[in-house]
Amino acid sequence: MRVLGIDCGGEYTGYGVVEQLDSTPLRHICSGAIRLPARQALELRLMKVCQELTAIIAAAAPEIVAIEDVFYAVNAKSALKLGHVRGVAMMTAAQAGLSVIAYSPLSIKSAVVGYGRAEKSQVQMMVARLLRLTELPDPPDVADALAIAICHLHTAATLERQHALK
Questions:
Q1: What b/e sequence results for 120-149 when a residue is b if at least 16 CB atoms lie within 10 Å of its CB, and e otherwise?
Q2: Domain of 83: which CATH number?
Q3: Active site includes 141?
Q4: Over the chain (166 residues), what is each successive 10-residue block's mean pLDDT?
């Protein structure tokens, strides 16, 4: 299974494609961050997210998209901007014919680090270790996106094992 993980953000939207075939090790396909200039009009930033994710989907050919679930933000304005980016990411996946699965931040950190309240630096280190990367994914949004993809792969493998036991 090949999964595109997306970590939506107002300044950077991280993405990461991870693959796992049967019981083989996780394999890093590609990752990066879409930088969204703060001074640019919102509609232009959203268009950039759509265009870049469309290109990533075309190049990496994921089978499914995993995204972080909505969480409560302290600042309502930031939450709205994040919601816009998240909506565009989901729409872009849907236009490509891909399903979107959402995971809570707690589930993502638990699946990757083993602790739901892990720090960003811990997520970066575990993602690098699990994917055998030579450097920590940076900015942290890239590590978060890869962690979201890994979370889906772990969850799908667990569900598959449970069905096999029935």
A1: eebbbbbbbebbeeeeebebbbbbbbbbbb
A2: 3.30.420.10
A3: yes
A4: 95 97 93 95 96 98 94 74 93 98 94 90 96 95 97 87 66
Q: 7 catalytic, yes or no?
A: yes
Tell me what pLDDT residue 71 has: 67
Name the domain count of the chain: 1
Q: Give the active site residue among 7, 19, 52, 144.
A: 7
Catalytic one of 52, 69, 135, 141: 141
Whole-model pTM over 0.85: yes
Q: For the purposes of burial, counting CB atoms within 10 Å of the CB of 3, is it exposed (0-12), middle (13-18) or buried (19 or more)?
A: buried
